[in-house]
Amino acid sequence: MYGLSLGETDDEEDFSADSGWIPWFCALKGHELFAEVEEEYVRDNFNLYGLRQRFQFYEHALEMILSSEAPEDDDLADSEFLEIYRDASDLYGLIHARYIVSPRGLQAMREKYLKGVFGTCPRVLCDRQHTLPMGLSEELRAAQVKIFCPKCEQVGPGGTCSV
Ligand SMILES: [Zn+2]
Description:
By secondary structure, the protein is mainly α. The chain has helices at about 10-20, 20-25, 40-45, 60-65, 75, 80-100, 105-115, and strands at about 130-135, 145-150, 155. Zinc ion binds near residues 149 and 154.
């Protein structure tokens, strides 16, 4: 029977791990600081406590975040989609802020740090010491993320230390 055989993997499923909204969002330029929050974490209402009332399109935004497909060009030209997308980005930012202080999230951020994803310190004496992001705050569109160098213990503006 077509489509009923168990154990056969179909191509779409193989791709879904890497093609959902979250991996797409985290791969956007300027989103290097974002770790991919696990779907399981996003689906746990406990982790989302208190966020609902901050969004006009909460349900749709959450649905978008959990979507297994990345937006297409058509979507990104659609004003209705973009309204929800704005909420989804902000909601993801808030969920992310909580996620990265959870054990799994800390581990994800540590891996990014070790890879130097957050950039390196511009000071010569620090010899390209990998830096850490600071101030990934819960406040929407709050002050820009700062970068902290564990070697010289200086805090600098984010985004300028890389390469
Ligand atoms: Zn430094």
